[in-house]
Design goal:
With about 850 residues, this protein is of the alpha/beta class. Helix content is about 45%, strand content about 15%. Helix 16 links the parallel strand 13 (about 375-380) and strand 14.
Amino acid sequence: MDHENILNKRKRTGGVKSPQILKYPAMASPPSASSGTFPALEAIENWMASLGHRAFDWQRQTWQAYWQGNHGLILASTGMGKTRAAWMGPLGQWLHDPLPESEWTRVARRAAAPPLQALWITPMRALANDTSQALQECIRGLDLPWTLEQRTGDTSAAAKVRQRTSPPTAMVITPESLTLMLSYPESQYAFRHLRSVIVDEWHELLGTKRGIQTELALARLSEIAPLHQRWGVSATIGNPQFSLASLVGSQPARSTCIIEGPRRKAIDLQLLVPASVERFPWAGHIGLAMLPQVIERIEGARSTLVFANTRNQTELWYQAMLKARPDWAGRIAVHHGSLSSDIRSWVEEAVRNDKLLAVVCTSSLDLGVDFSPVDQVIQIGSPKGVARLVQRAGRSGHRPDVPSRLIFVPSHALEIIELEAARQAIEAHRIEQRPGLDKPLDCLAQHSVTMSLAGRVTREGLLEQVRSTYAYRDLTDEEFDWVLEFVTTGGSLHAYENYHRVHRDAEGYRVVDPVIARQHRMAIGTITADLAMNVQYLKGGKIGTVEESFAARLKPGDRFLLGGKLLRMEWIRDGTVWVRRGQGSATAVPRWMGGRMPLSSELSEGVRNLLDAANCDPGQVSGLKSLADLLALQRRWSHVPNKDEVLIETIQNRDGHSLIIYPFEGRSVSEGLGALLAYRLSQHVGISFAIAVNDYGFMLHSPEPPPIPWHELCSWLSVEHLERDILASLNATEMTRRRFRDIARIAGLIHQGMPGRSKSARHLQASAGMVFDALREYDAENRLLWQASDEVLRDQLELHRLTAALSRMQQQRWIHKVLPRWSPFSFPLYVERIRDRISSESLADRIRKVQMQLEKVAVSELQDAH
């Protein structure tokens, strides 16, 4: 099919809203090498056989689907061979239909290698080296004349300039780097021979603004090279058809298919618990107490990845392991996203070459990196989601015929329920869905300026391009025209010349100011977080980064952990934290954003079902046997709710009155419900509450008893006026203001500054705050303000999940228990409430005293019963 026919088909059909799904492997048996249908298959299988490998049927079916001209999505577990399944399609196509060498010379004025044929889009530049090695191995194995290069933020400036006019045959590239290349006029020529685009780890981009950025870039590539095939590589997700539609767009000119590898890889989930499980748990209290058992498991394995949920946890666990086993110096390492690329690369290479006994890491090693020597994973604390647990387990036994082994170390006893819920969800193949974003206008504004940089664009041409993406398939003319007005005049900010970024004339839209062009290219991307500051030795190299908000609190002489090293801060200058090696103990531990993840909806439902099953037959849930004493005490002192019940506990002591409700729906929902109920009650009668939340419930604590009887609580937690009340209950204006800063950066309203002259986070926040206040006062209907409010409701408050929880609770029976003391379920909430209160005692000592008092009562009761 030629370019003209493809474009005509897209115009005739008006796009395919629901693309036809050709399910593989539910198809005819794969072609044999001897059939002659696909000559490339024989060469591929011969090369794999020379390595002692054999192609799987589902891999052959993937290649067949590619060679038949489909777009597609590959779903398979980690370590099952997704990379070769995706990459051999384009390589086999070249073996069957290579570009004549005379065409290479005509295109590139050189015969060294063919022009750009394939893009491999990776979500993390940390994966680029490992991915490039795997792809290059295949190219060499099939003896293709292809060149392969990387294009990421770590690529040198000289290489980036050369790649714009003389790209390699294949390129491993990040979404940001691809968008940056598309901002140059040369992209029209660099990508015109493109045949294949493969998006790796698509599930990580899906439902994020980086995913939206990728969709928009792919739409532009479809205009430059309409013949290219588009494939995604993903771990198993709960909504594969939506994932495919987001990848191929609203107007795919080719048939589409989903290819599923083996449904699940064998996972050996093991639980590591203390000798005795305390009946009054609190978040984090087990923690490093399990260090001896963790060390014992590491000693018994060849190589181990120890996953923690936060970067500061990795630093603490690494130091604790090194203190317990000083002979492990040089044999263990730490790895997370705030370390320098040199340190991360060294660690990855050392693991790959079997030189390290263990690495303590975060999600920085969740994706893509092939660590065949790793034979076990240890997870510290609940990963809070089924997909994340499967992903991390798959880092071990990274071969199709080897089971993955994950050892779970709970940070408190109730997380044992979460592990059992995850185990059952994995067996039932219940994986979380990845929801999409609906036409975010900040991303569209950035894309519109990017396209106007590459050359003059017309309104109709740009609108057709944008609507070809799935995210913007329903974009209205009014919304699109608002964005064009915003990037050309600044909209309500038209009085400020620096917001006139795109010039409009009779022929279309283009960027003419070189300063604006340079500013925009420096700001391309959608990753927004607290600005990072480099940490560097006074005499030596860079160690990594810390967030500016942490660095601002440091004083000269303060000691902190980074990269497994104790560092002493000397001074901050030119955006860099200058340090020496420190001695003694740390006075501060860096805390990066995103430390607390809420329990996913799938695990929340699983926890409720497990408690229900434990009530029906306490002995039938084998995974909860270690919690038998805890659950028995909860029943004796209070109640263990069935899945059709809502438990309410009220406690009065010398400290005041506590009302506790257990939705078992995750931290975000608990936070929203607590704020909502506190607000509604305070409107009824003048009363103030302290609120404590965790994944299982929330507590309202006040000096006076709640102003209504417990049986009326259900009506006070109705969904009526939910959005209005939830925004009023929280500091929604301040939350929206913070979210607006990120939107303003993406949309181009504020700038981080040029290299070497970056603005501080405080400066950026102040700039965004001034714009936010001006828009609220003079342009309250501004669509970016609407977007900020919508994102707060959707992302921070999870309004859809909160609504579903309230609707479910309205249908359930409410069980009320008046308690004379804290129950096992309420005790963790008590700890959350007092965690930040001032006391001369350490938190652990205070908690231990209360625990001992409660245990004394429980033991006395049992003795009296006997």
